[in-house]
């Protein structure tokens, strides 16, 4: 069975979960209030537990060289996306109010919610330890730099009303530090300690964490579907600039990188994880973080929904270029 076909099957499963959320919202089983509360649970409880679960029962193993290479690739992954996001938003001539949000969507893809089921379906559960490194880096960056970007966007959008009302709601440095100290960062730190020191937790605790972390993928996909249902479909799919952005994000960048790195003398699975991570759609948690910080989550919703739908086709295409 080809890599592209295996991934296509997994993408269809995730799409089905989105449809569940879409129809639950339409029949009022999920309303705006419920959506907001569930979002807080996913961001502050379930997603951090998913990071911890990723290292439980894992150890550094015998081949430290592979883990070190994978760690280096993870660092390269985020540095590359942070840097490339700057010229991309300029090339697209993104509106000022959405600059930070487009950069958020460029940097933070669905490495955990979609990365784990898609990549493990292709390579098996043995590569999850590689994905965990990306999740740890992702969460540290999301709950630090990501929150700063979201808050900047919220502040930019609120400046007009502040000027009109004569208010000054600038967020202090102390408030920024407080926002960084959150469940995501705490969970990431704890996960690194568990992994590096090879600490074993009690079986009931491990089961508790595993059961809750297994809710992340379906809950996130359901919330994406519910988020999509909150808007008229024509408003979700009517922004042409978003399609140009996603063409760059989902197709051009991962394929170009795949052609560049596939000849490197690095384990094919490590390279495969790196390339597929670049091909993942906009992270659903970006929508939740934008909403939590008071930014315009509609822009992120468009990016998350449209990219997730397009990724059903684009990820299998990128998989054709895997080493």
Structure description:
The structure is a single chain. The protein is mainly α and 323 residues long. It contains 15 helices and no strands. The longest helix is centred in the middle third of the chain and has 38 residues, at 128-165. It starts with a helix and ends with a helix.
Write the layout of secondary structure elements.
Elements: H1 3-26, H2 32-53, H3 64-91, H4 99-107, H5 115-123, H6 128-165, H7 173-180, H8 183-196, H9 203-213, H10 216-229, H11 233-236, H12 240-261, H13 268-279, H14 284-292, H15 297-319
Helix pairs in contact: 1-5, 1-10, 1-15, 2-8, 2-9, 2-10, 2-14, 3-4, 3-6, 3-13, 4-6, 4-15, 6-8, 10-15, 12-13, 12-15, 13-15, 14-15
Give the structure's gist in a few sentences.
The protein contains 15 helices and no strands. The protein is an all-alpha fold and 323 residues long.
Question: How many separate domains?
Answer: 1
- Radius of gyration from the alpha-carbon trace, in angstroms: 19 Å
CATH topology: Na+/H+ antiporter like fold
Share of residues in helices: over 70%
Mean pLDDT, as a whole number? Answer: 83
Task: Name the beta content range.
Answer: under 5%
CATH architecture: Up-down Bundle
Question: Globular, elongated, flat, extended or rod-shaped: what is the shape?
Answer: globular
Q: What is the level 1 CATH name?
A: Mainly Alpha
Number of strands: 0
Low-confidence stretches: 166-171
Give the count of helical stretches.
15
């Amino acid at each position: 069975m080809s890599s592209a076909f295996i991934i296509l099957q997994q993408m269809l499963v995730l799409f089905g979960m989105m449809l569940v959320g879409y129809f639950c919202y339409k029949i009022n089983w999920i309303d705006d209030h419920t959506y907001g509360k569930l979002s807080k649970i996913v961001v502050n409880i379930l997603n951090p537990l998913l990071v911890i679960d990723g290292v439980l029962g894992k150890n550094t193993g015998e081949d430290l060289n592979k883990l070190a290479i994978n760690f280096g690739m993870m660092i390269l992954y985020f540095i590359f996306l942070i840097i490339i996001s700057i010229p991309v938003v300029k090339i697209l001539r993104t509106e000022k109010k959405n600059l930070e949000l487009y950069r958020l969507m460029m940097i933070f893809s669905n490495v955990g919610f979609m990365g784990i089921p898609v990549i493990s379906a292709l390579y098996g559960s043995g590569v999850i330890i590689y994905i965990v490194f990306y999740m740890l880096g992702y969460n540290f960056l999301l709950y630090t730099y990501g929150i700063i970007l979201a808050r900047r966007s919220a502040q930019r959008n609120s400046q007009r009303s502040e000027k009109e009302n004569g208010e000054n709601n600038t967020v202090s440095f102390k408030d920024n530090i407080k926002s960084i100290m959150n469940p995501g960062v705490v969970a990431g730190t704890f996960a690194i300690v568990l992994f590096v020191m090879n600490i074993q937790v009690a079986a009931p605790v491990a089961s508790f964490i595993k059961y809750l972390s297994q809710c992340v993928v379906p809950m996130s996909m359901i919330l994406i579907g519910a988020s999509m249902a909150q808007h008229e479909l024509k408003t979700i799919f009517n922004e042409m600039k978003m399609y140009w952005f996603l063409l760059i994000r989902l197709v051009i960048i991962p394929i170009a990188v795949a052609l560049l790195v596939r000849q490197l003398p690095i384990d094919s699975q490590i390279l495969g994880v790196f390339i597929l991570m670049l091909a993942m759609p906009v992270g659903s948690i970006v929508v939740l973080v934008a909403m939590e910080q008071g930014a315009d989550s509609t822009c992120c919703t468009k990016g998350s929904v449209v990219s997730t739908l397009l990724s059903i086709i684009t990820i299998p295409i990128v998989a054709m270029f895997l080493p």
